Amino acid sequence: MGGLILSIETSSPCSSAAISDPDRVLAEATFTMASEGGRRLPPAIRRMMDDLGLGFRDFSAIACSQGPGSFTGLRIGLSLAKTLALANGIPLYAAGSLLLVAYNACRSSDEIYPLLDARRGEVYAAGYRFGGNRFIETMCPTVIAPEALDPLLPDRAVLVGEGAIRYQGEFLESGPRFRTIAQLSLALPRASRLAELVHRGFLSAYVGDVMAIEPLYIRRPEAELRWKGER
Prior knowledge:
GO terms for molecular function: transferase activity. Strand 1 (4-9) and strand 2 (14-20) form a beta hairpin. The termini are far apart. This protein has helices at residues 37-52, 71-88, 97-103, 146-149, 162-166, 168-172, 191-199, 222-227; strands at residues 4-9, 14-20, 25-32, 59-65, 92-95, 112-119, 122-131, 134-144, 158-160, 179-181. 42% of the residues are buried. Mean pLDDT is 88; it is low at 223-228. Helix content is 30%, strand content 29%. The protein is built from eight helices and ten strands. It is globular, with a radius of gyration of 18 Å. By secondary structure, it is of the alpha/beta class. It folds into two domains: 4-96 and 189-227, ATPase, nucleotide binding domain (Nucleotidyltransferase, domain 5), CATH 3.30.420; 98-186, 2-Layer Sandwich (Nucleotidyltransferase, domain 5), CATH 3.30.420.
């Protein structure tokens, strides 16, 4: 699609917001969502818009990450994106953070498995194959221990993401079956890459009540588990 896109990514510790057109990233701000991250997001967006002389009506779409990832970050980012889209009558696009990380390695013709650190010795994982302006999900997003994931992966699988880097040693024990992309710049989802997915037609705008879109947590929040006495 054409036009300007405001994209918001708050699933990872290093969150970002970006303004992009079909040809380039016009502005991108990065910040940590820990502690004061929620208060920094709206001013960061406003500064980028002011620098470019833009109003919300100038955007053709708003895009946001849906998770999995930081529970607090996802609530803040998705809530802001939904509010802006609804208040200004702008189409809203949402994409999983695992898809965003996989897209960082989309030039590979092999199956790509993005892995994000889920803590407790587990990773968020999914599988994708890219071709043209479309992708196929070969494994649904899940949370799993690296040693349990290993036998599920096909030969020549491409592993990317912070989880792939953290548990690279475990996967290396399987020999040369996998290829791990250890570049930190490709390990996390980014707002500018989210906008690129929309511009290239990989995603469809949400149809219906945008306020009904919920984060993709996969795992229940830590506070909820503690409240119910589960570990």
